Amino acid sequence: MDDITKLGLSEKGDMKLKRLQEENHFLDMRDAFRVGIALAIAFKVSPQEDNTKKVGRYNISQIDEDKSIETAINLLCDTQGVPTYRWAERLAEWGVAKLSEESESGQINFAKLLEDVSSLAKEH
Amino acid sequence: MSNFTKDIAIQSLLSSVKEVAPDLSEDLIEQIYAIEKHNQFNGDEEARFKAIKVLIERYIDDQIG
Amino acid sequence: MKLKSLTIKNFMPYKGLSSIDFPMDDSRNTLIVFGDNMRGKTSLLNAIRWGFYGYAYGRHLRKIPLNLLPNSEAVKEGDWEMVAQIKFEAAGSQYDLRRVARPKKHVAVIQKPEDIEVELHLQKNGAAVAGNLIEEEINQFSPEQVSRFFLFDGELLQEYEELLIEGSDHGKRIKDEIEKVLGVPTLTNGREDIRNILKLAQKQQAVEASKTKELESIAERYQEQETKLESLKVDLSSLTMSLRKTHDDRVTLDDEIEKYETVFVKKAQLDSFRARQKEIDSDIKAKTTERKMLVGDIWKDFLAPRLSIKRDSLIGEQQELNSLANENNKIKLLIEQATLANESSACPTCGTTINEDKLNSNRARLIELKSKLNDFKFDEERSFDVAVLIKTINKVLENKVGGRLVDLDSSLSSDEFNLSKIENNIDNLEEELKSYSLEQLQRDRQKRDSLFRSETTLSNELEQTSSLIDKTEVEIRALSTQMQPKETSRKTRAGQTIELCQKIYAVFDSSVERFRSNLKESVELNASLAFKEMTTQEAYSGLKINENYGLTILDQSNHEVQLRSAGAEQIVALSLIAGLGQAGRASGPVIMDTPFGRLDTKHRKNILKYLPTSATQLVMFVHDGEIRGSEDLDVIASRIGAQYEIKEVTPSHSVIQKR
Questions:
Q1: Hey, where are the domains in chain A?
Q2: pTM for this one?
Q3: How large is the ipTM?
Q4: Lower Cβ count inside 10 Å, N or C end of chain C?
């Protein structure tokens, strides 16, 4: 399977991404995309492909300019043979949904998320 | 007015008579004082003044007569 | 004189009928009425005042309009009749005084005092006293002019402090009131009446003199001075009235401003809150902007925990790899050395020939080392990769923003909370201040200040006019003397009247000051005795009286004690009352409203022991804060004839109950 060169989300995911920016949780949708991926990696999720159409495609350089995301995925994730950025897309879908959920109570509680992430990291 | 102050008032008047007008009738002074005391709270200045004026006039009449 | 009972109907907060029986026993002559503030204690005092004299006082001794006296709840129910009935005994007679107020017949809605008619009835020993003689009858025992000194309210205590200020207009008014109690007007009125008779006689003399040639010019000058004097007296009267009105207006405004002083304080608070609100708003904006910028980089913090663990693992691996690399290098070095040794049969250091056994041993060693190197598995590429990975992870972990973001969130939360509190405060204050016009209050302040300046100006003018009047009168007297024939036989009736009145005037004039001096001595002595009974301070030797009947405390060296506490002020005022009571009035009841406001326990006890001895009956209106139940009352338990309590039914309806 070849890797992708542009990253996007499902329509639902893209709407959530837009709302995160409109509601001033993030300055830029790319920030939310990136944070979504990182959150998913931190939560050790292993998302499956949902085969939906992807919209709002970003160039890889817009999301992962210095390849940190790529490095993190390769180091920390078992992508089950799925190419890195395809895996990144799946992680983003989960991550953006999670951020959207967190934003429903008003301000996203990053302090809580950081605590959760730190606890999870210590678990095997 | 209490008896106490009434006494001091009359005493003050009679002392003053001896001092400033020894030939003045003490009786006249006491009569004037009696009118003033009777009228001190009724606020009828005119009645009081008239009563004293009549007293003075009668006294003068007696002196002339 | 002794009060027997007070019965009131619909008077101020007392809806319907209420009554109090006064103790008649000489030894148990004290009545205590308990009541919290604003329940109706002062109203009872006013009931007695209204019963006797037909008026009631509000603040600053301003009369309350008649139409505002009836109980508001009764009025709402259409019951406008208001009654005060006082039964008392004096000079061996029994009196029943009844004052009734009702709406006039043709009046449908009461809006002003003139809409109400008042009837006054007095029975003496069961027989009605004629209406026109009632006032005279009451004045024998309880003259209105001196009523302030036995119907005694707390405000009076504070006014006594004015007496210490020599020359203050208010102090002068209180001094006049005191002198009425003491009977000074009998002499000053006498002096005034004689002066007026003298004037009439002098006028007559001037008329007679104008008919005599040699006295014509003197008579003319006399008339001029008389005219001038009349004009000055009119001015004086006008100035006095203006001053009084200005003073009253100023005091009224003072009251209003005092009431609204808190409004200015609240406005200042509101401004302060608004400024703070702006500050916090601005802070929140700045922090929110910073937060938004930081949030974009939070992804590093999310990756950090797992990446750190990974990095630690890689570092461990790197250490192992380094260790293997070192081992590898060591073997290589040994091989190098062994190879060198095998290449020559002589020692490279000293040149000696190496024996065969040694040579064989060297060869075997070299084979061994080569075999070891061959077996050695060192992944150099992996070592390089691990180093790169560690470097990459370190770069990702640089410049994390999580800590700062958490701080910002905490700070923002605190800011939001404080902002919310401040906004609540702002809302509350805005609501409170809604009904006030601050511009109007500011104008009132300015007006009050202007009135104060006018008072000073008018006072000065009054003084100047009085001074001119004195000068003119001296001139008139001199001219009158000039018009007087020297020989008695030539004196006219007017002349004789003048001569007599001048003597009588001199007697009264001289006796006024003599009388005042003797009275003050007496008041000072009695007040000092009362003071020493009531004070707890042994360092005080007594009291000294001033021109205005104000009293100062003397210490053991007879020096005036300059500064004194509010409590001491109260005791001095009570001492003055006692002193005046001894000197001035016929004996009678004293009715005191909240006399203990500023006193400590010890002073309260002393006063409670003393006061019942200073009057035929003592009636005290107190609230629970002033007298602590049985603890304070123990001191006068044997003197208490009755106790009552005022209880609130609604804010405009109180009842009196016997305790």
A1: 6-123
A2: 0.55
A3: 0.96
A4: C
